[in-house]
Amino acid sequence: xxxxxxxxxxxxxxxxxxxxxxxxxxxxxxxxxxxxxxxxxxxxxxxxxxxxxxxxxxxxxxxxxxxxxxxxxxxxxxxxxxxxxxxxxxxxxxxxxxxxxxxxxxxxxxxxxxxxxxxxxxxxxxxxxxxxxxxxxxxxxxxxxxxxxxxxxxxxxxxxxxxxxxxxxxxxxxxxxxxxxxxxxxxxxxxxxxxxxxxxxxxxxxxxxxxxxxxxxxxxxxxxxxxxxxxxxxxxxxxxxxxxxxxxxxxxxxxxxx
Amino acid sequence: xxxxxxxxxxxxxxxxxxxxxxxxxxxxxxxxxxxxxxxxxxxxxxxxxxxxxxxxxxxxxxxxxxxxxxxxxxxxxxxxxxxxxxxxxxxxxxxxxxxxxxxxxxxxxxxxxxxxxxxxxxxxxxxxxxxxxxxxxxxxxxxxxxxxxxxxxxxxxxxxxxxxxxxxxxxxxxxxxxxxxxxxxxxxxxxxxxxxxxxxxxxxxxxxxxxxxxxxxxxxxxxxxxxxxxxxxxxxxxxxxxxxxxxxxxxxxxxxxxxxxxxxxxxxxxxxxxxxxxxxxxxxxxxxxxxxxxxxxxxxxxxxxxxxxxxxxxxxxxxxxxxxxxxx
Lengths: 258, 328
Ligand SMILES: Nc1ncnc2c1ncn2[C@@H]1O[C@H](COP(=O)(O)OP(=O)(O)O)[C@@H](O)[C@H]1O
Ligand SMILES: [Mg+2]
Prior knowledge:
The structure holds 2 protein chains of 2 kinds. Chain A has helices at about 1-15, 20-55, 65-90, 90-100, 100-105, 115-130, 135-145, 150-175, 185-200, 210-215, 230-255. Chain A is mainly α. Chain B is elongated. The interface of A and B includes residues 3 and 110 of A.
């Protein structure tokens, strides 16, 4: 535990002195804010139009759940955005250590390989949470200014979904970073892998296996307030698989030149 | 303290280390000498538990590198060929991190970090980012990293490569001061380096151990002349009298062999004087029977040729060409 902590705090410390992490978080928040306000505008207008039309034709006002719609769309946009942002958080995790030779330091210290791998994984996950946290403010604003108040459960399950999706992407990103010494190569390969995992259901024509494998398809239910056990199992097993592959890859360094 | 037994390491089809055995006693500085590609780094990576051996065993302080790897790692400080530094960390922050992953108890961490900084004389720069340090300072931080948990065993892979002469002297002095309390293996391809710092030398070439001796003896062999081994049927004193008259001989050693009153004779001549034909002629002329005549330890000489035998002013740059010449 102490060892995981040592690796974890070092990783996190390095993130917070790296301009890349600040740039990634900054740009993410600017874009997320932009999309949030556009989505809000759009649905507010929509609901006005519906109300106007209803009163024009003398019909009873229609139920239109603005905050619910906003949240759903917003989580949808964020889930797509992180496909682009997470590769930049994971690209250096192993590639840089290998390039600098610091992997040799870690691997000859009294740490197990899995302490190294989990420490790194938790550090990137923490940074991801830090990146996401300010978006809670949008949710708080939405909550305060809505009448009637939107159900909190929807926001909560949306965030659970985003965290699971993020953790899955991080596990995959770390594995890919462990395969190369170049963070640029790692970033491109990771992004490519995410795209494949994203669109894998497009050509499926109803093939259930491919649909099941699409990481975003598994996400769809969360912003509706539904936490599906099948999706939980899917993400959990993906994370475990990613971490396991990373461990294998780190172990294999012991048989090659580091 | 360190026992290497029949160690072999293959990289695919390449045999990088071939059945080498040696011991390092507690408190000793062992020089690990060999030209580039000899297998020094590979051997050190096995001792430090970075990679497993293909066959053979390595024990550090009685613990096996495979079965009790964590115990070994706790007891070793290791400076790889390129110091494993994080450029964005400060010197002190970095050493604190290394102390943590080496399992230094939190109570002692501050003190040990400071001790390491003092020993390696980087305390003035402790708040500086490693990225901003000069090459010499980085090497010192690398050394501090290897010492920070006060390990019993210290493994240093070419610790003076790329340093200027003044820095080299400093680093060597530091290493010497660590002996006694620590057991040290230091690899190098520079011959004078071992005579200046080490108690004992192991020479390897193409993965094989070719010699193990004190630096003094090895230097005598190098500076000394060419040795010829003979096997002669003769009477010892008579033979000695005859051989003594030959010019350019420095030393004659005559030992009786077990079988049939033959003698084992070792003749050392001055460098550049090949006395083999003369020796043969003299012996035969005097009616003795010559059974064998061969030059001794030519393999060692070949290796000395490949080694860097002089201090270099710019070690990195002049490294390759010198090797090329040696091969020709
Ligand atoms: N990862 C590797 N894969 C294949 N061959 C290697 C690897 N590492 C080292 N070698 C080879 O093993 C031999 C010994 O290398 P090394 O231990 O680095 O020697 P030294 O440190 O003495 O220069 C060399 O021939 C080198 O090319
Ligand atoms: Mg080497």
